[in-house]
Structures are given as structure tokens and as C-alpha cells.
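To the wet lab folks,

You asked to see what we're planning to order before we commit. Fair enough. Below is the target structure as C-alpha cells, and below that is the sequence we designed to fit it. If anything looks off to you, flag it before the synthesis order goes out.
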């Protein structure tokens, strides 16, 4: 560890003094704070910025104000309120965990770390953050913001996702977390990473621990944390069949596993020929041949999806059990993948009939 005992001993108190003056104290989940509200916020904040989360959190809590309400809601309703937030496994796991809380814990979120970690979608850092934020329990955390702060401050080399580097960071996080004011400290170190020790252009002049930060002293802020070895991001191509009939479009529920799991999207195939076979077998009759719409590119963390949409207006189309007609003027409550929502909005605005 690159820091001596003296600076380690004062780290938390310098950070807390900064937090008292500059930290965030009025976030929605800090108002009427409860384990459930904190839990929902922590799951939403995984890989998503606070500014993006706030409106989703407020709508989600208005619709699902209790664990019981979330546990018993239709999955389509839960995914609908998550649509656009991304990483939809979080929403499915959140509801599965709520159901487990109702069945195994009497409707109350567990207050012990290992029990909380046993729930779907809750790892060590999320569990620690929930218990610290909601109940002021002392637990180290290691989300993305905290990893960046600790990596720079202690000068930890290596990719934080590697097990040996992660173990060093967990040890450091545990060492620095104070016995008192665990709730405030947890929020403080997350705030420091989000507002001061940012990924690019960190504001070291405003940082309460910059005087003994290794990265600041050595001018290595842009080099820490070290990135994973770069790989070329692969590309996947799909073809979407956008079937319109009487102001509605046909949507198909996606498999639970895989991208956009459990959400609704357009029927798809690997190539235009396979899509044409679907159309020939089920449209009665097609009014025109399918018309290609502009290609859509959607980036995921590990690959880029290239979508070729084909529009077909038909009098009838034989839907399958996992499909539903979606009225664009009076939409049902369904969870939709973001490109699907954007494409429906474009069709509603432009008018599909005018395109062919």
C-alpha cells in the first residue's frame, strides 16, 4: 500500500469534512430514507449516472412504493418503468429479489450482509452500500466511483477487474471506512468520485485528499485506473420486420436471457432472406413488398448491434403466442427496448403509410 498510517488515519475525516460542505444531501432516495428506497436507488445507479437515474427513480417509486407492490406487479409493468434505463437484467433481478423478500424474509429487506447478498442482483458492494446508507452499518464498498478514487489515491496499478487488484482495493476500502458516520462516509466517497475525482479532467484542486494522492503527486490521473487491454468490439447484424396494420405494429417478447431480456421488440431474423420467409408464411396479404428503413446502430458494452429494419403494411398477419399488437396511438404498458421506442416514435411522427 502506497500510503503511510498517518494519512490513512485522517482520510475519512478529511473526506467527511468535505462532504458536510460540498456533498449531495438532497437526492430523492435520501428523502424519507428506507432500506427499500435505498436498495432501488443502488440498483439503478449501477453503471448509470445520478442525473439519469433521478427521474426513473421517482416514477418507479410512485408506481411501486413498497416491496410488496414490486413483487406482485406484472413484469411488463416493471420493465415498462425501466425502459430506457438499460441493463434490463437489473429490473428483472430487482423484482425477483422482491419476491424472495416476501416469501423468505417476511416482506422486510434483510439487514445482514450475507443474507442481503443472497438476493438476485445484489453483490458485495451493493449490499454494503444499502446497509450503510439505510442503516448506518459499517461496510466497505467498491463501486466504479470508489474504485477510481482509491486507485488514484493509493497509486494502485493494474486493471481493477483483475482479482488480485480487486482484492487490494477491497482491503484498502475496508481500512479507510470509519466506524462512525458510515452512512455519510459511504455517500461522501461516492460523491467524491462522481463530482471531483471524475474519469476525465478531475478537479484535484478541490479534492480533500489530493495532498497525499499518488496519482496527483506523480501526474498519473489520466493513467489510473488502468484500462482493460483493448479488444476490437465485434459487430452483430439483425433484420427487423416492422409489420403495421390499422395503426398498430407487431411486437414479440424477447427471451428472458440475452439482450433486452423480457422486453418487447420487433420480430427478427439473421438476414433478409429469412425475414422474407417469415413474411411470406404469415402475411395475408402484404400490401407492398417490405421497404427498408434507415439502418440503426446500437452500442452495447461488448459489441455493436447493426439493425436493418424492414417495414411492411398488411391487412392481416398471423401472430404467434409470444407476440402482441401494439397500438401506436394508445400504447399498452409494455417494456420496450430503446431502439424499438425510437422507431415507433419515428413511425408515429412520420406516418408509415406515407413511406410506401
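Sequence we intend to order:
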Amino acid at each position: 500500500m502506497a500510503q503511510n498510517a498517518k494519512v490513512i488515519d485522517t482520510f475519512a475525516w478529511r473526506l467527511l469534512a468535505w462532504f458536510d460542505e460540498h456533498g449531495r444531501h438532497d437526492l430523492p432516495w435520501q428523502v424519507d430514507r428506507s432500506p427499500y428506497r435505498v436498495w432501488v436507488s443502488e440498483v439503478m445507479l449501477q453503471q448509470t449516472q445520478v442525473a439519469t437515474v433521478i427521474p426513473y427513480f421517482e416514477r418507479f417509486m410512485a408506481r411501486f412504493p413498497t416491496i410488496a407492490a414490486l413483487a406482485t406487479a406484472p413484469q411488463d409493468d416493471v420493465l415498462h418503468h425501466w425502459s430506457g434505463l438499460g441493463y434490463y437484467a437489473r429490473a428483472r433481478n430487482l423484482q425477483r429479489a422482491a419476491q424472495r423478500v416476501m416469501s423468505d424474509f417476511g416482506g422486510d429487506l434483510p439487514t445482514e450482509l450475507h443474507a442481503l447478498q443472497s438476493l438476485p442482483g445484489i453483490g458485495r458492494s451493493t449490499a454494503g452500500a444499502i446497509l450503510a446508507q439505510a442503516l448506518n452499518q459499517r461496510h466497505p464498498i467498491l463501486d466504479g466511483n470508489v474504485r477510481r478514487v482509491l486507485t488514484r489515491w493509493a497509486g494502485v496499478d493494474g486493471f481493477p477487474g483483475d482479482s488480485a487488484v480487486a482484492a487490494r482495493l477491497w482491503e484498502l476500502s475496508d481500512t479507510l471506512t470509519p466506524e462512525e458516520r458510515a452512512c455519510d462516509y459511504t455517500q461522501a466517497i461516492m460523491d467524491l468520485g462522481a463530482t471531483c475525482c471524475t474519469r476525465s479532467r478531475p478537479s484535484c484542486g478541490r479534492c480533500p485528499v489530493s495532498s497525499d494522492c499518488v496519482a496527483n503527486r506523480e501526474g498519473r490521473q489520466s493513467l489510473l485506473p488502468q484500462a482493460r487491454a483493448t479488444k476490437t468490439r465485434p459487430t452483430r447484424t439483425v433484420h427487423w420486420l416492422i409489420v403495421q396494420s390499422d395503426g398498430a405494429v407487431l411486437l414479440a417478447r424477447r427471451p428472458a436471457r440475452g439482450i433486452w431480456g423480457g422486453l418487447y421488440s420487433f420480430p427478427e431474423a439473421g438476414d433478409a432472406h429469412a425475414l422474407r420467409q417469415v413474411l411470406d408464411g404469415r402475411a395475408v396479404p402484404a400490401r407492398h413488398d417490405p421497404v427498408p428503413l434507415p439502418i440503426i446502430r446500437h452500442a452495447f458494452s461488448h459489441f455493436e448491434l447493426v439493425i436493418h429494419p424492414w417495414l411492411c403494411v398488411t391487412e392481416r398477419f398471423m401472430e404467434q403466442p409470444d407476440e402482441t399488437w401494439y397500438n401506436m396511438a394508445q400504447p399498452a404498458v409494455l417494456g420496450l427496448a430503446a431502439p424499438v421506442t425510437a422507431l415507433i416514435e419515428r413511425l408515429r411522427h412520420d406516418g408509415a403509410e406515407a413511406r410506401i
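Structural context that might help your review: The first strand starts at residue 235 and ends at 245. The radius of gyration is 24 Å.

Thanks,
Computational group
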